[in-house]
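Fill in residues.
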């Protein structure tokens, strides 16, 4: 396979062709997830997320892509000059992990383990209060993530 030789672009092209030729959506989801994992391994975070989302579109009860997206976000949580706002990225991460568990109980143990780890990184209420935010407010995480979440 191309990726073993270090050619990420060729590996992704291979997965794209496999997706295009495949009729079974479960297999398409597996190929898209594999492409996401390859891209994640070389830190092409946004592209990896796109392929993980594609995997979800082929199989809506597939938890692994949500976990991958959560881990992608955790590798790059900083988007603001304000440290407390950067910690809000972990709310989005927790959202993805909760979704993984909800759609795919087979990945609940992995999701729970990561939730226990990432939960420790969310901002304290007083940190956000000083910035004018409170529990229940919506916030959009900036940067390449660009997702909204609820402060809790």
């Amino acid at each position: 396979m191309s990726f073993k030789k270090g050619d990420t672009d060729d590996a992704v092209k291979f997965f794209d062709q496999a997706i295009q030729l495949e009729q079974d959506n479960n297999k398409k989801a597996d190929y898209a997830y594999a492409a996401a994992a390859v891209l994640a391994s070389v830190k092409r975070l946004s592209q990896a997320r796109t392929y993980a989302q594609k995997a979800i579109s082929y199989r809506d009860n597939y938890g692994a892509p949500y976990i991958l997206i959560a881990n992608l976000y955790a590798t790059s949580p900083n988007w603001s000059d304000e440290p407390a706002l950067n910690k809000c990225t972990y709310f989005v991460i927790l959202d993805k992990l909760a979704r993984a568990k909800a759609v795919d109980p087979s990945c609940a143990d992995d999701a729970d383990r990561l939730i226990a780890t990432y939960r420790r990184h969310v901002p304290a209420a007083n940190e956000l209060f000083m910035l004018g935010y409170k529990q229940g407010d919506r916030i959009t995480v900036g940067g390449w993530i660009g997702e909204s979440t609820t402060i809790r």
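The mean pLDDT is 95.
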